[in-house]
Amino acid sequence: MTLVNETCSACHADAPRVGDDELTALKAQIPEWKLVEEDGTPKLQRIFSFTNFADALAFTNRVGELAESLSHHPALITEWGRVTVIWWTHKIHGLHRNDFICAARTDQLYIS
Amino acid sequence: MTLVNETCSACHADAPRVGDDELTALKAQIPEWKLVEEDGTPKLQRIFSFTNFADALAFTNRVGELAESLSHHPALITEWGRVTVIWWTHKIHGLHRNDFICAARTDQLYIS
Predict the structure, then answer these.
(1) What was the pLDDT predicted at A1?
(2) Would an 8 Å CB–CB cutoff place B91 in contact with chain A?
(3) Which of A57, A60, A102 to mutate to test the interface with B (most CBs of B within 10 A)?
(4) With contact defined as beta carbons under 8 Å apart, do A77 and A47 qualify?
(5) Residue-range definition of the domain harbouring residue A94
(6) Which of the four pLDDT bands, split at 50, 70 and 90, describes residue B14?
(7) Residues of chain A with pLDDT under 70
(8) Whether A64 contacts chain B with CB within 8 A
(9) Across the interface, which of B64, B80, B90 has its CB nearest the CB of A57?
(10) Residue B47 domain-assigned?
(11) Interacting residues of A1 by C-beta distance below 8 A, sequence separation 6+
(12) For residue A41, what is the domain's CATH number?
């Protein structure tokens, strides 16, 4: 089953973080995403390119709509010509399987 | 004349940066904004608070609309419960009077 077809599960403070082996396997499904660390918290980050500000902002809104539908929210940095999307799970200060699902769904929004 | 009633002027690579004295005077009109430096470029930054994601995203769109109307674009970081707005002038790698006008107009959008 590919990530994009999975659904997000409700996430609690004691939900499992993604382990190293699982991370490698999941990361392979979203090759455009970078694993970054901010304040000791691992996060998934991808920069999406556009040819103007309006298209970047429209994408921010599409990702925002996805986030609302999943009750899971990224950081969205909107600038002229690009949107940086950062997914992580606040409650566990790290990466949950949900974040990889959201990253895959975000890729799908960019293609469509 | 207050900043909020001024209009942005077209900005070129040789447009004047705001000098130290002018900066102090302009900054006093937008007390909620912080002067930050990113990669050697001075910028104006303010974090606006909201009680959910939808309201934060709605504010991002209002600031985006302002930016489009002025042909001057900030970085907008949308997260659950907050939007960080960062204004600077790319062409001069620094702060132009326009940025202070935009900051004052952004404050006005938050109040209204």
Answers:
(1) 65
(2) no
(3) A57
(4) no
(5) 18-111
(6) confident
(7) 1
(8) yes
(9) B64
(10) yes
(11) none
(12) 3.30.1360.20
User: What's the rounded mean pLDDT across residues B73-87?
Assistant: 98
In sequence order, the β-bridge partners of residue B94 are: B89
A53 touching B (Cβ < 8 Å): yes
Cα dihedral value A57, B59, A45, A20, nearest 10: -140
Which among A36, A10, A33 is positioned nearest to A96, based on CA atoms?
A10
Position B26 pLDDT exceeds 70? yes
In a domain, A31, yes or no: yes
- Residue A112: per-residue pLDDT: 75
* Sign of the C-alpha dihedral computed for residues B98, B99, B100 and B103 taken in this order: positive
* Tokens encoding A39: 């304040």
| B66/A contact by beta carbon, under 8 A | no
> For residue A74, what pLDDT is reported?
98
| Total number of domains constituting chain B | 1
